[in-house]
């Protein structure tokens, strides 16, 4: 059986403490709705989370939990927290050992896209590349978000690969797929 491609109109419907106000920008590939909670706060929630009951408030119902803020498919709170996932084996997000190539690999995800940062013989070089990418993408995004939302955030210097002392091994790409070095 195939799923319907027709968008649902949830306007005015209640989901726990949330009332759907209007469609919001998609979160990644998922449709989302701007909702108003009974406490008065507004939150953008994925349609699936509303309909499944996974989300029923802006976070006021669950102490210590707040609604997540998405901009262009990017979760602001996830970028701010800089946590390392439990299944991470290197201890650094976006840095992993690529067994088939015998090298460390650096990668970063931003606004729904995954960017390769190259392969490195030394773990330290892969970590430097990842940190540099975080500063240039994530930190810059967070500063712009803070300015737009009225928070004061001092500008951070953005180093270049040369000033960071990174030995980058470039990888050719063909048709959007990795090629062999």
Could you please describe the fold and organization of this structure?
The protein starts with 13 loop residues before the first strand and ends with a strand. The chain has 181 residues and is α+β, with helices and mostly antiparallel strands. The chain folds into 2 domains: 63 residues, no CATH class; 86 residues, no CATH class. The C terminus is likely disordered.
Beta-strand portion reads 25-35%
Outline type:
elongated
**Terminal Cα separation, in Å?**
43 Å
> Helix/strand-derived class?
alpha+beta
**Domain count:** 2
How does the major sheet shape up? Answer: 4 strands, antiparallel
The SSE order reads EEEEHEEHEEEHHEE
Q: Provide the spatial order of strands within the biggest beta sheet.
A: 1-2-3-4
Number of strands: 11
Taking all Cα atoms into account, the compactness measure Rg is 20 Å
Query: Mean pLDDT, rounded to whole units?
Result: 77
Helix content class: 10-25%
Give the number of helices: 4
Seen as an oligomer or otherwise, the chain set is: single chain
Give the uncertain stretches in residue-range form.
152-181
